């Protein structure tokens, strides 16, 4: 039951988030300060912010539910994350830092000489992040509404309003420093839950033994079955492509790399985020195993009849935690939701100002005012998409997976083509390069329909079931690059014959 003490803890956390946003806003004198913190943010804080934005409330709630119903084999995703760190550190970050760009997608105009390609990439990014933000805001709000016994729409609007407010005031500084606090609450909440459960089932040793007997600690599956997401080839290799696409192509990440003072600091922040991400995964997978021991093996308490695995952790939060601790855990869910939204709307604001309107360094406070307006606009649109997600009857997870592969894979292909443009396109003119890239990207997006269909419209896949979901970005990325090579070759042959 949510007591008065729980409400006090929750409100105290929300007020502290607002206070941090107001405090750090004092140093924002221009657009560069607002978007990049003057390029002097501490790499430790940036690294924590990167993982706080990445994990979201779905990790807090979804990871325990996954282990409760299955096992820890998704821990193999960390192998893919480790591989991605090397690629991003050696290929992406140095090029971003030395190219003089202030937006990830500005690179396309530099390399291809085409504002159209740049804006196309920015549109893809905005659509993907807006859809993702709506889902990430809706999912925890659903739990908050059930836990606090309030209307779902109210839960969405309140948590979003606070994130929009402190992001509007403080910009990237507010996002990063509130992320640090939110990560501490998020991670500390998970540790506290694990300690409470271990204490009630006979200690960590007994809990680990019972979890192992139930098969919940199984994390390694060396199978090469590409149709199963819980295998080494899918979780280790294919997921690495998804991680590279997110860590290397997402403006949220690039913006934070550019907020560090140099390449070394940016790489340190990236490595730290990977290490913390691994720690978060292990922690919350163990929370899921502990919940299984608590309810099924030790039977310290019983669950209501027909309760689904996704509802076990929220039920535990409300009914099994001491007064005050429940408020802290609910605050952790709010923390994860607000972190996802604040980082998203700040990067979308930068993309809007820089990629769509063009950022004039001499604009001074005028550019800063526009950026703040964009922050509110994208925040409101995020709320709209969250409310829209609440009306959908289909699987939000399937739709989210489809759109992730639809946009992230082609974007990664575009960046790789841009990085190695001279080798790929040779002496081809930039106008031809831009045309080839656009055709290739559209083909890359279309390729997913063959393997995934279009869940939102009920379109079935022609080759459904061959590849599991981690392979979707790999498929769309590979198609994009292959088509670009083929089309470029054909175009060069045709041009040579005309000459």
TrEMBL record:
Pfam families: SSF. The keyword Transport applies. Keywords: Cell membrane, Ion transport, Membrane, Sodium, Sodium transport, Transmembrane, Transmembrane helix, Transport. The chain crosses the membrane at residues 6-24, 44-63, 75-93, 120-140, 152-169, 176-198, 229-249, 270-295, 315-338, 373-394, 400-420, 432-451, 471-495. It is found in: Cell membrane. InterPro entries: Na/Glc_symporter_sf, Na/solute_symporter, Sodium:Solute_Symporter_SSF. PROSITE patterns: NA_SOLUT_SYMP_3. One of its GO terms (cellular component) is plasma membrane. Its main location: membrane. GO terms for molecular function: symporter activity. It is a multi-pass membrane protein. GO terms for biological process: sodium ion transport. Belongs to the sodium:solute symporter (SSF) (TC 2.A.21) family. This is SSS sodium solute transporter superfamily. It comes from Fibrobacter succinogenes (strain ATCC 19169 / S85). The lineage of its organism: Bacteria, Pseudomonadati, Fibrobacterota, Fibrobacteria, Fibrobacterales.
